[in-house]
Amino acid sequence: MHEMSLAGGVARIIEEQATTHGFSKVLTVRLEIGQLAHVDADALSFCFSAVVKNTVAEGAKLVIERAQGLVWCFGCATQVAIKAWGDACPSCGSFDLKAASGQDMRILDLEVA
Ligand SMILES: [Zn+2]
Fold first, then answer.
1. CA of 72 to the centre of ligand 1 (A)
2. Which of 52, 80, 96, 102 could link 36 by a cystine bridge, Cβ 3.0 to 4.6 Å?
3. What's the 68 CA to ligand 1 centre distance in angstroms?
4. Is the model's pTM score more than 0.85?
């Protein structure tokens, strides 16, 4: 389960931000996760609440937004959007797809006190 290490990474970034910007409490963390990222949002929320215990982000609300997944279709020779791996190209039905975007996870913003 790599959600635990992802949650740890987010917690580390928040700690760095807290040190840099001098806030002592995080209320909300907004994350963007690509639809094609292999991340289970529920598992990530669970892990996050565990790893931020005794940090500035303890009790913070995790808001997860899913970004559209884009792939390159070799059939159409263009970028198309799919919802999940295993989906065919919506235009030509090809499975000959290569990831273009939507695999990443990033912190959008933090609401701090
Ligand atoms: Zn296609």
1. 8
2. 102
3. 17
4. no
